[in-house]
Write a structure and sequence with these properties.
- The protein has about 280 residues and is mainly alpha-helical.
- The chain contains 11 helices and 4 strands, in the order ββαββαααααααααα.
- It has a two-stranded antiparallel sheet with strand order 1-2. It has a two-stranded antiparallel sheet with strand order 3-4.
- Helix 7 crosses helix 8.
- The longest helix is centred in the first third of the chain and has 25 residues.
């Protein structure tokens, strides 16, 4: 409740005239150092707005120094590119075998390939190149189109079923959708294909249907054909899944996964570095 203004006997400071439960409020002024600090920050802010980029009510201003973090980043990237140019040019013009045998080029290519993989390939193949359903595991020794350095480079450069005119392409027929086989025949072929992974191929109608429709690509022993991108069906490595329902779905409707062509998106040094890195993961031939 309001009371009269009086002098506090302890501090010697005037009160404000307000009192609560016997406690009187002092009218103590703000210390001078606080005002100095406040005005120093105001002056600093004004100078900063003039010198550096700022957002004001009238819009953004570039600042009279012309500084920006984007500019610093661009300068850092240019400096890094300049420092790497000699080795990158050397890798771009070198044969893959030479890159693999030269310690300096190999180390540089491995580091660059690892970074490029994380930026461009990991979203599909995984950060550890472990793959996902529909995206190959790059750590094993099963390769649809070959695992030699030259094979991997060609795959990266031109892609699989991509728009590039030199892209690798193969199409498994959609045996059910295109009415080449009926549901019973597809079921029999699926049983036969699944039996191959056990090492003792089943006999019966599935084997005959496989022989008539599948050996042209997968081989008479289901060993696959890397020239056509046809997988081996004798192991337990499955791109889309090895349960019967998935195998039936694959035979019925086919699969037409696409890997983009990186030629034109990545430069030659990066493509070769990627090939070297992927080849080193443990599954390169």
């Amino acid at each position: 409740m309001p009371t009269k203004i009086e002098k506090d006997i302890v501090s010697g400071q005037d009160t404000t005239g307000h009192e609560w439960d016997g406690i009187k409020e002092l009218d103590t002024p703000v210390p001078r150092w606080w005002w100095y600090t406040l005005w120093a920050t105001v002056v600093f802010a004004a100078v900063y707005v003039v010198l550096y980029p700022a957002i004001l009510p009238g819009g953004a201003t570039p600042g009279i120094l012309g500084w920006s973090q984007y500019k610093v980043l661009a300068e850092d990237q240019a400096a890094a590119s300049s420092a790497q140019k000699g080795m990158r040019d050397k890798i771009a013009g070198a044969d893959l075998a030479v890159i693999s045998s030269d310690a300096d080029m190999l180390n540089f290519a491995m580091a660059g390939g690892r970074a490029a993989f994380g930026d461009n390939c990991a979203p599909c193949h995984g950060s550890g190149a472990q793959g996902f359903p529909g995206y190959p595991n790059l750590n094993d020794d099963e390769w649809l189109w070959g695992g030699k350095l030259a094979d991997i480079t060609t795959t990266i450069r031109f892609g699989i079923r991509a728009s590039h005119e030199e892209s690798r392409s193969s199409e498994m027929p959609a045996f059910g959708v295109d009415e080449m086989l009926d549901a019973k025949q597809i079921d029999a072929v699926a049983d036969y294909v699944l039996s191959l992974t056990s090492g003792s191929a089943a006999t019966g109608p599935g084997a005959e249907i496989f022989k008539e429709n599948c050996v042209a690509c997968h081989g008479d022993k289901a060993q696959g054909d890397k020239e056509q991108g046809a997988p081996s069906l004798k192991d337990a490595v499955w791109l889309y899944g090895g349960d019967k329902a998935t195998v039936v779905q694959t035979i019925n409707g086919s699969r037409k996964g696409v890997m983009p062509a990186w030629a034109g998106r990545l430069d030659e040094a990066t493509i070769k570095s990627l090939a070297v890195y992927v080849h080193s993961l443990g599954g390169g031939e």
